[in-house]
Amino acid sequence: PMHPAGAQTPDASTNLPPLITHYGAIASSPDGSMGKARRHLSKLGAQQQALQRCGGNCTVVSTFTRCGAVAHDGATYHGGVGLSRGMAEANAISRLGGGWIVDWACN
Question: Which of 19, 20, 39, 103 has its C-alpha lying 20 to 30 A from 30's C-alpha?
Answer without folding.
Answer: 39
